[in-house]
Fold this sequence. Notes:
The protein is an alpha/beta fold. It has helices at residues 4-8, 33-37, 52-68, 83-90, 104-113, 142-147, 153-162, 177-189, 201-209, 220-228, 275-290, 292-299, 310-331, and strands spanning 41-45, 72-76, 98-103, 125-134, 136-141, 168-171, 194-197, 215-219, 232-237, 263-270, 304-305. It is globular.
Amino acid sequence: MRTIAGTMQRNTFLSSLAAAAFALGGFASIATPAFAQQRTVRLVVPYAAGGPIDITARALAERVKDTLGGPVIIDNKPGAGGNIGADMVAKAAPDGLTIGIAATATNAVNPWLYSKMPFNAATDFAPITQMVRVPNVLVMNADTAQRLKINSLKDLIAYAKANPGKLNYGSGGNGSAGHLAGEMFKKAAGIFAVHIPYNGGNPAQLALLSGQVDFNFDNLATAAPNIKAGKLKAIAVTTLQRSPFLPETPPVADTLKGFAIDTWWGLVAPAGTPKDVIEKLNHAFVAALNAPETKSRFALLFAEPVPTTPEQFGTLMKNELAKYEQVVKATGAKVD
Length: 336
């Protein structure tokens, strides 16, 4: 199954960031009984090492170790679209010594893609902070866009309405980021385009570059090199606001009000973790996310740090879970 976060793991060319070293001080160490006895914190990453989620987790883990009074050890537990690692966090002792990554896939999409889930995304986690937001981008083959005289999202929608069924779009597979974004777009715009699923994001991008499909919704980090090279034309980003990494490209929401389908991930603890522990974890990681060095390094991933309160991240996860229920059910996509 290729889900949003799974697609992002393909960006292995960024793996060199995993060794980034940071330093942080200025907050008191957590002093609950559990931390006093054992200050090593395990941060479960539910994806393989080397991808953007793993890289950002390792960078922050190194940066907060002084604040938390001990090391933060990354524990990669990939499998089942991220469900294996997420389940380990859900079932861990609620003492603050095991935390994990919650992502769009694990906590918003997978609950509707999988017939059986090992955890309850709505109740089994205590939010700590959002970490990152990464925009997706609607891209066309540059030659196709020129031939069809499509220079904007309004042009694309107008062409699709005047030529029903003539456009198609590719994705990394049923239930993937590109598939869900495409279906949301079709519904919001009132158009029809044929979905062509491929076995992964890379084949989908190759199909777009060769002109086999007309447009894709792709992760900006993946699409950016070909946008810069002039092979792909960026039509719109999927965040509500313009992306600092693609400032000339307007959001889909400028044309289709409220449209937003970006990739995010953040930190969670098991449900029942004491509030004071959550607050101190939040303070440590928010300080790390706000550091200028973090912002500059994350920019290489086309990732924007988004530090929040636990309550704000909890609201985001709740809203995203409800949003993707409608999207996934509309597509009929299932993993099993």
